[in-house]
Amino acid sequence: PASSSSSTVWGGPVQPTQGQNLYEWITAYFSGYTTSHGVNQSFDESNGLCRRLFWATLFGVSFVVLMIMLESTFDDFWRAVLATGVDVVDGDNILPMVTLCNRAPVRCGCEAFYDDSLLADDTLLERVIPYVCKGQLGLTQDYKGAKDADGLPIGYRDTLERDIRTTVDKAETKRRMAAFTDRLDCDNGPYTKEYIVKCIKAGTCTALDIFSYAGYHDRKKIVRYCKAPDAETGLSTSCAGDEYWGKVMWNDLYGACHTFNPCVGVPIGDECKKDSDCKGGVDAKGECDEGECICKACKAGKDCKVVSQLVPGKGKGARFVVNAAADQDPMFRSLRNSVFTAGGI
Question: What is the dihedral sign for C-alpha 288, 290, 294, 300?
Answer without folding.
Answer: negative
